Amino acid sequence: MRLSGFVDDEARERFFSLYDQAMAAWPRHTRHEVATSFGPTAVHRAHGGTGPPLVLLHGGNATSASWAPIMPMLTAYGTVLAVDTLGDAGASVQKRPVTDARERAQWLDEVLAELDCDRAHLIGLSYGGWMALNQAVHRPRRVASVTALEPARALVPVRAAFVLRALVVLLTGSRAAAGRYLAWCRAGRVPPPPMRDLLVSALLDHRQRAVTAPQALTDDQLRAITVPTLVVLGGRSPVHDVRRAAERARRLLPGHRTEIVPDAGHGLPADAPEAVGRLIRSFLAELSPAADRHGTPPPPR
């Protein structure tokens, strides 16, 4: 079975040149690799407080660089660990198929174990938002909380237009079409270079194979999530029915928080970094108020 990878060496070189440029927008950080049974996984670490780390799970084709706009707010709270999703464009290298939701949760659990994360706050966008919720369903032991930003397919189906526009980009290989697709997803907002060019490269220079797509979560699965959960949706997201997604989250995740950022599209951290950052910080402060006042969690009792 063919696994995910870059289309050729030239595509790989183009992608990583842009990736390194885009990651320069991050605060000071290190990148290292952890072993999993599915393949080596790259993790970017930016140091912060001493409490449970914030583990970032990017959206499909978005790469860890996409978190740059809200990194200052996150590192002020604690140590940030951004994972390059195995099977997606990035520095992780797939060695084995990820066939279903349980195997995706197993991979992430192995990553957290290798990082010595006994408890972690998961923050995910789109596919990463689904992964965070999926982890709370299948492997919740290491999960301290979940923040799901525009979680793909977890709450409601994606619109047919989303799938069709993505197919046009992949079938034509057009960088112009890729740019239009990104602008459509993000309510007309596309980040400047090099991030824009990196997103296009991730779409066209890399192929996902033998990787599970995000799956709809059943009513029972959502009701079974017991860790504190924040769902944030973009009010102008064209990817899914935002109203229905919010209604389902509020109905099946009672006691958790569901918020809509009115003017944002699907790319929440880039579309509305200040609003999204404030929501995440206030959510984490509810779990540990002293951590938000001082930038580090309170000492253990």
UniProtKB/TrEMBL annotation:
InterPro entries: AB_hydrolase_1, AB_hydrolase_fold, AB_hydrolase_sf. Keywords: Hydrolase. Coiled coil: none annotated. It holds the Pfam family Abhydrolase_6. One of its GO terms (molecular function) is hydrolase activity. One of its GO terms (cellular component) is membrane. The keyword Hydrolase applies. Residues 54-276 form the AB hydrolase-1 domain. The keyword 4Fe-4S does not apply. This is Alpha/beta hydrolase. It comes from Nonomuraea mesophila.
